[in-house]
Amino acid sequence: VFKENAPVLSGTMQGGIQGAEPEVSLTAFILIALLESKTICNEYIDSLDSSIKKATDYLLKKYEKLQRPYTTALTAYALAAAEQLNDDRVLMAASTGRNRWEEHNAHTHNIEGTSYALLALLKMKKFDQTGPIVRWLTDQNFYGGTYGQTQATVMVFQALAEYEIQMPSHKDLNLDIAISLPEREVPIMYRINYENALLARTAETKLNQDFVVSASGDGKATMTILTFY
């Protein structure tokens, strides 16, 4: 178990670790860091494997009794990364609507926690659960592409990038999109496939009128509508 005894001047730097169950959260964070650095540090730190095992054992004892959705998601990711978790029942029971891990009045922490949950499910190969979570996360971004706080933004990017890497169905992506804007005789056409799927496209109209978007083919895409007044 790891404890934080020194004060942090800016609480936003801590992300969702603030609040209940801080020792579990901090231990999960450090276990993730130890696992990610293992290939580099293993030959220099003799006690690394022992520390990983002790942290894993501690989290396993606490996992099913956790109360916060954020801590449950974070701990699930740490245990899944350590290859000690294959059952998603506790994780999904802590969710809201099976697509987000939500606490009252903590929007950016909810985004961060949901990102950990997505990473945990990807580690466990529970791909059937991931679609609604990805859709919820992509709907939360602020204007400019951020997610409110640095920690939340970084974790969303990591989780969505891992989703793109691991989901084999993405290679079958082949969509034709047509956008018919007011007073344009010819619709704007986009073709989205596996090679260009991450390239953002934009279209603009100055008229506050209805427009039509149609899609054909195979796969999924996300559209964001931004209105200026």
CATH fold naming of the largest domain = Glycosyltransferase
Please give the largest β-sheet.
Answer: 3 strands, antiparallel
* Approximate shape: elongated
The CATH class of the largest domain is identified as Mainly Alpha
Domain Complement component 3 CUB: 172-229
Pfam family, one: TED_complement
GO cellular component, one term: extracellular space
Protein name: Alpha-macroglobulin-like TED domain-containing protein
Note down, in words, how this protein is organized:
The protein has helices at 22-36, 38-41, 48-63, 69-81, 89-93, 107-123, 130-138, 150-166; strands at residues 174-180, 188-193, 212-218. It folds into two domains: 11-166, Alpha/alpha barrel (Glycosyltransferase), CATH 1.50.10.20; 174-218, ubp-family deubiquitinating enzyme fold (Single Sheet). The protein is elongated, with a radius of gyration of 21 Å. A three-stranded antiparallel beta sheet has the order 2-1-3, with no helix packed on it. 27% of the residues are buried. It is built from eight helices and three strands. With 229 residues, the chain is mainly α. Residues 2-93, 101-163 form the Alpha-macroglobulin-like TED domain. InterPro entries: A2M/Complement_sys, Alpha-macroglobulin_TED, C3_CUB2, Terpenoid_cyclase/PrenylTrfase. Residues 172-229 form the Complement component 3 CUB domain. It comes from Micrurus lemniscatus lemniscatus.
